[in-house]
Amino acid sequence: MKYLDEFRDAGAARYWAEAIKRTVTRPWTVMEVCGGQTHAIVKHGLDQLLPDEVTLVHGPGCPVCVTPVELIDHAIAISLQPETILCSFGDMMRVPGSERDLLSAKAEGGDVRLVYSPMDALDLAKAHPDREVVFFAVGFETTAPANAMAVYQARQQEVRNFSLLVSHVRVPPAIESILSSPQNQVQGFLLAGHVCTIMGWEEYEPLIEKYRIPLVVTGFEPVDILQGVCMCVEQLEQGRAEVANQYTRAVNREGNRHAQELIQQVFEITPRLWRGMGTITESGLGLTPAFRDFDAAQRFPVEKGPTRNSPDCISGDILLGLKKPHECPSFGTSCTPDQPLGAPMVSSEGACAAYYRYRNNGKVYDLKH
After folding, report:
1. Is 271 helix (H, G, I), strand (E, B) or coil?
2. What is the pLDDT of residue 3?
3. 3-state secondary structure at position 310
4. Count of C-beta atoms within a 10 Å radius of residue 113
5. Counting CB atoms within 10 angstroms of each CB, which of 37, 43, 60, 145 has the fewest?
6. Which domain CATH number covers 292?
7. 280: exposed, middle or buried (C-beta count within 10 Å: 0-12, 13-18, 19+)?
8. Which domain holds residue 154?
9. C-alpha–C-alpha distance, residues 244 and 320, integer Å
10. 325 located within any domain
């Protein structure tokens, strides 16, 4: 299949792995900022194809993983209110809150429904005008246009029993938070191709000017990732710092202007609390005043009590790239996909879930052979 098979070709992957080996002369640390890329790296053993000088670390590229416990608790509280339907993507269903997850709330009588699109939730609202329907809007800039369109359509169609519990986050401020940390060891980044498909890469250029660090827009298949690493290492070796685009088949500098206009009409930039990273300035999206009536956080205010994260979960260090999942004492023992201590073990884009699925019991996958 065009644009798929050719980027999964083992020979092409080995070519780029060899190109990296020929290029590198000293140690470098590169972070990918996408959970989908993390899973591809671990599944295909791409990090094991690299020379010892190149270290890949996993960043906060899983939107479910960075959603704070406070918002999960809020979603659970909404789901347990009478005459209310809480809709969510499947990834969020088993992420632990302070005391329970959404599936547990469903078992306790809450009307929690798995949907595949925010428009599914809007259709539910139209089908059940006597019920309040809330969609748990989690994601990076990639999913913002679809969520914005759902709210826009709700207003156009005067569907008043529909609202969003918004947990949207933005990538550039997260990268800046990592770069400004005294603990930072990252010297180059692979940017998430799907985010840049929407947003382009203009908003990353100030990071280049401020931090003098290479950023490479990268796709999600094995050859994409290895080529992206090679492009990043070439810049590091040559002392260059610029935004480079490996994912040319989908991304341009400007991005999708129509999608951006819709996002700007419905959402505004706000501070956002990230799990394991604290509050990051201008890192979130919230509904604009024109759409504030569709804000579930205002429709369903809840008393904020103390939140609880497992003291044995090191998800903060995982999300910041300071540690890898197998370095957690709880990994694969007291923390498993069946009994997760934190979001990275249960989300389909979580680094811990990737390591458990593909690296537990010493597994090594296909492109190594």
Report:
1. strand
2. 62
3. coil
4. 17
5. 43
6. 3.40.50.11740
7. buried
8. 64-169+255-299
9. 23
10. no
Q: Specify the DSSP class assigned to residue 322.
A: S
Residue positions counted in the chain: 369
Rounded CA-CA distance 4/21 in Å is 25
Which residues on adjacent β-strands are paired with residue 55?
29
Please list, in sequence order, all residues whose beta carbon lies within 8 angstroms of the beta carbon of residue 88, skipping any fewer than 6 positions away.
75, 102, 112, 113, 114, 115, 135, 136, 138
Which tokens go with 69? 């416990």
- Across the chain, mean pLDDT equals 93
How far apart, in Å, do the first and last CA atoms of the chain sit? 23
Q: Is the pLDDT of residue 298 over 80?
A: yes
What is the tally of structural domains in the chain? Answer: 1
Bridge partner list, 20: none
Q: How far apart are CA 12 and CA 6, in angstroms?
A: 8
- pLDDT, tens digit, 9 for 90 and up, residues 186-219: 999 999 999 999 999 999 999 999 999 999 999 9
Structure tokens at 294: 């569709």
Structure tokens at 359: 């690296």
Q: What angle do CA 330, 348, 270 make, to 5 degrees?
A: 95
User: Which residues make Cβ contacts (< 8 Å) with residue 204, sequence separation at least 6?
Assistant: 172, 175, 191, 215, 243
Q: Which amino acid is at 20?
A: I
Strand partners, 165: 136
> Exposure of 55 by Cβ count < 10 A (0-12 exposed, 13-18 middle, 19+ buried)?
middle
